[in-house]
Design goal:
The protein is α/β, with parallel strands linked by helices and 331 residues long. It is built from 13 helices and 12 strands. Helix 1 runs parallel beside helix 12 and helix 5 packs across helix 7.
Amino acid sequence: MIMKPRVFVSRVIPEVGLKRIKDHCEVEVWNDPLPPPYAVLRQKVAGCEGLVALLTDKIDSALMDVTPRLKVVSNYAVGFNNVDIAAATERGICVGNTPGVLTDATADMAFCLLIAAARRVVEGHQYTLAGKWKTWEPLGHLGQDLAGKTLGIVGMGRIGYAMAQRCHAGWEMTILYHDVYKSEKAERDLAAKQVDLDTLLRESDFISVHTDLNEKTRHMFAAEQFKKMKRTAVFINSARGPLVDQKALYEALKSGTIFAAGLDVTDPEPPALDDPLLKLPNVVIAPHIASATVGTRNAMAEICADNLIAGLTGQKLPAWVNPEVEARRRK
Ligand code: DGY
């Protein structure tokens, strides 16, 4: 009898991916809606060859030290800041992620936050619910125009490009971007201009963050950066919460240094209920739902399953974060 590889799946993911995994592996799925505590995760993965992890699971070297059989970590996310990639590579553990399929959904959410924050939609909704709407107010609820404004994209990858495309095509916005790489495509198709961060902060009406989180980008938006923005600026973060010094963002919003913010991510997640940020009228906060559409989450589950199975069977992962592991496998 052929033994199936043992796999731990740290949360229920869409059936389309789960079924594919179950067909190939002996699977334990963590059924709780909350993530397994770290100590439990370590224990669960200890005898496994494969792990399907979420962005809420910390996959560090200490965990890898107690999982000697582990061949692959398939992260159910495009971001992988929860995984110590260097430690995985050193141990020959493949790491997969889910790029591409969540680009549109995430860009849609970034745009949704932009327009909601600029036009004070949530504040207006609360005003209505509170029975404060008495009449049409010529000077009430004034927000910011979108058409013809300047959008600054920080991180012109797939999602940054998709956000810029929406704003350029729909609202004729001028696109500035800051990235270590030049985006020929954005420059050609959207007339985007690559600029240093200070220029982007000073000249943009809307600033949308799409960069990855690492030690260099942690808190790249702090008091100094908010001070450089226009007082009418709207700041959008749909990437990772720790890219922003949240206390500094709070001060900037409270003092009117910037106009508003739209966040799909916070630091920590969820924010504490007594976090003063939650009391501000000029911030819209969604609970990290940018990829939360049925089609997108299904597609993520499929890639996630394919990455896992490829890693278990010694194939190339369809979306491989650390392909350098392949050279190690050959040795
Ligand atoms: C990701 O994939 O990194 C998102 O944050 C969640 O889909």
